[in-house]
Write the structure tokens for this entry.
Amino acid sequence: MTILLSSPIMWWSLSAFIGTALYILIFIIPDTLLPIITRSGDIAHIIARYWARWTLFCSNVKVHVEGEENLPDGPAVYMANHVSHYDVFGILGYLNVQFRWTVKKELYRIPLLNLAMKNAGYIKIDRSDHAKAIESMKIAVDQIRSGTSTMVFPEGTRSKDGNIKYPFKKGGFHLAIDAGVPVVPISITGSRAILPKGSYRVKPGHITLKIGKPIDPAGHDVQSLMEETYQAITQYL
């Protein structure tokens, strides 16, 4: 243990792991009971927001948000670049919006996390089954039309080298067009230095979320909406 804690990076890695695990253990019971009280998922999302903030605190990571004046009044499809697990913590903790993630089905195999995501109303995407993927998108459209936004990583997975992966996955753009809501681009910087893909060592640092102006899907097809979103995200990277 002395050797482990002699490295600041290992210390913060251990602090982040223990902190987030304790939070989950403390709140897993109320999170399990929430569907009995409410089916909206709003309270579960708030619990998840403070879990993210607590994890960032335990990791000695600060988050700065720019462009909050660009947040639309109504529901939207939020899209961000993705290079680190800490993108999730940054957005979940500090994007001041009630939203639901679209989540690849593999994450639902993680004990406790799968229960929390289900209770919060997150949308499971099975990319290996086209019919199930379409059904998930229909659920997301219904959620948006009822007033709840959706958060998408359009690259589909984390970039290993930090470069944005393009072209994007098309699902989120179909979603925005079908629901008739804007795409809100978010540019994330700083997270890769904290925890790059393939690493388990957390390095304290700063994350910046730059919220761009909403992009109206009217007059767009999927390809043109994708291109404009890509340009909006990359201009701040």
